[in-house]
Write a structure and sequence with these properties.
Layout: H1 3-22, E1 25-30, H2 36-48, E2 51-54, H3 58-65, E3 81-86, H4 92-103, E4 108-114, E5 117-119, H5 121-127, H6 133-165, H7 168-194
Antiparallel strand pairs: 1-3, 1-4, 2-3, 4-5
Helix pairs in contact: 1-3, 6-7
């Protein structure tokens, strides 16, 4: 083997290692049977989620992963494989690839490492069901907003009752109910957040 070839391979191993170190996750997929147009579509879908799909020789990936958290992927490196790197969202590559694989049966997920943990195929399929970061933020915001809305409605009901009846007894009862609702809502939010 010539010196140039060795140098080129060494450069590729460094590139793979650098991409793996910078990535929050890596997913190994077998792409046998996908057309060039389908691979281009998959790359485009991944790029939209700040992820990247690269095809490397298996032996070069194995060299790059020695003594890293990604070394567990080496068992999956048989046949024509590609690596998807998740840069800003650790779950994005698994989510995009799983969705794409439903429409294109030739694409097979073989394994993944997410945030330093080697995942089984079942675990990869589970995390693929998670929403993206923005979706998670909106779910969290909705959970936090719910108790505040209940308290606001309860206070408004108390104020309306005072205006209509001028009755202090009814207002006290409604205030107690509103307080109970607020406490229950807060406990529900804590339980949901803990899940």
């Amino acid at each position: 083997m010539s010196t140039e070839a060795i140098k080129a391979k060494s450069t590729l191993v460094e590139e793979i290692n650098t991409k793996l170190q910078a990535a929050q996750s890596a997913v190994v997929v077998e792409y046998r049977g996908l057309s060039v147009a389908e691979m281009t579509e998959l790359r485009k879908n991944l790029k939209a989620e700040d992820s990247e799909l690269k095809v490397y020789k298996n032996s070069l990936v194995q060299r790059a992963t020695v003594d890293t958290v990604y070394e567990g992927l080496n068992d999956q490196l048989t046949g024509p494989n590609a690596l998807a790197f998740g840069n800003s969202d650790a779950v994005a590559p698994a989510r995009v690839i799983a969705k794409f694989a439903k429409e294109h049966e030739a694409l097979v997920i073989k394994g993944a490492v997410v945030e330093g943990k080697l995942l089984t195929l079942d675990e990869v399929n589970e995390i693929a069901k998670l929403p993206n970061r923005e979706g998670m933020y909106s779910m969290l915001l909705a959970m936090l907003k719910e108790p505040v809305s209940k308290v606001a409605r309860a206070i408004k009901a108390v104020a309306d009752a005072k205006e209509e009846n001028g009755g202090a007894v009814e207002a006290k009862e409604e205030t107690a109910e509103a307080t109970e609702e607020a406490v229950e809502a807060k406990e529900e939010t804590k339980e949901e957040a803990a899940e």
